Amino acid sequence: MAPEHPWHSHGLRARADSRKLGRALALIVAFIAVEIATGVLAHSLALLSDAAHMLADAAAIGFSLVALKLAARPAAGALTFGLKRVEILSAQANGVSLLILAAFITYEAINRLLAPPAVRAGLVLAVALVGMLVNLAAARMLASANRQSLGVEGSFQHVLTDLYGFIGTALAAAVILLTGFQRADPIASLCIAGIMTRSAYLLLKASGRVFLEAAPEGLDPQAIGRALAERAGVVEVHDLHVWEVTSGFPALSAHVLVAGEEDCHAARRDMEAMLHARFGLDHTTLQVDHAGAELLEIQPSPASTRARGAARPTAPGTSSLLVQARNREER
Q: Which fold has domain 221-290?
């Protein structure tokens, strides 16, 4: 039996991550309210777009919190893996929402490039500087969480990109204060929309790989197959599948044929230990059989055939009974 996957022993870490996510969420939500009010008063699209991005950050952190709680539930009924893929669903939803927000911000920024409103740059600069501090604090909280989780990593990347957005907003406000160039505000908004689009793409790509059951990043199925085939006594490896149940939970299955004199059970244990040591694979299903096992034909005796024929004539073209059984070692 393969060793227990680390996922099942990380209850304490999951609770610690939940506390860190909760603190970061409270910090960001409090600042969103301040930023929206200031953006309206200052007529700054850059601040409002930052607030929209931070709202997406809050949603990402909220989704991650829910996903951690649902993923901790034990498997039951038809859900043999439990609800561990909920975090992947949240990453998909978060990526789509980011794309929608980026499209809206881009549309508004283009309109403001054509007819730029007057921006109260001093107020915008002050809020942007505070926003940088808030996002630095939130990023520090999330950086120490378990970033193997796609939900947690997505939340961290959102906070990090929002930090870049505040830097852009502060620069735009400084440009307006120094030169009076009002279009710096929508230009900064376009930059923020670009950052949001990149974040959305990376989230959708990573979560899409999990849904398509592609091999996890950093695991090469060809290299794994060669490593299995190189074990002494292995004749063939086929039906090799490597996928990810959820982020940080890779799985493998394969059919391995070994030489007739090999111990199938010992070979399986050796290969499982190798997969754990070299590739970090713990959830493995290996079917190990002997190669070249001949078929054993079991036919009724002539006497029984004659007796059965006398009792019930055989229809023309009907062959005698043939039962084939593969001669293989009992698993």
A: GMP Synthetase; Chain A, domain 3 (3.30.300)
